[in-house]
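Anyone up for a design puzzle?
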């Protein structure tokens, strides 16, 4: 991959270009959210490149899901900590 075959990053950039008309149709408030989806895809590009999947959209979707799961886990941990502090009678805002 690289010289004759496009890399996953090349394919991801191509997918992002293909979706630009969709992005332009989004409300301005949602355009940065849409951009972050592709940032998640680029964030896991190394793993997706190792997969070398014939349909690059699939590793992109899994990358987005994984990034969202990570954020959800972080929020749950933070919520658990805050709930524990609240039940222990600790001040939440020091």
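Challenge accepted. My sequence:
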């Amino acid at each position: 991959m690289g010289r004759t075959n496009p890399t996953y990053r090349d394919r991801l950039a191509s997918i992002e270009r293909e979706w630009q008309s969709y992005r332009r149709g989004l409300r301005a408030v949602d355009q940065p959210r849409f951009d972050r989806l592709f940032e998640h895809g680029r964030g896991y590009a190394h793993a997706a490149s190792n997969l070398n999947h014939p349909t690059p959209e699939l590793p992109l979707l899994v990358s987005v899901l994984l990034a969202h799961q990570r954020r959800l886990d972080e929020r749950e941990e933070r919520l658990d900590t805050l709930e524990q502090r609240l039940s222990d009678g600790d001040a939440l805002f020091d």
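A detail worth pointing out: DSSP finds five helices and no strands in the chain.
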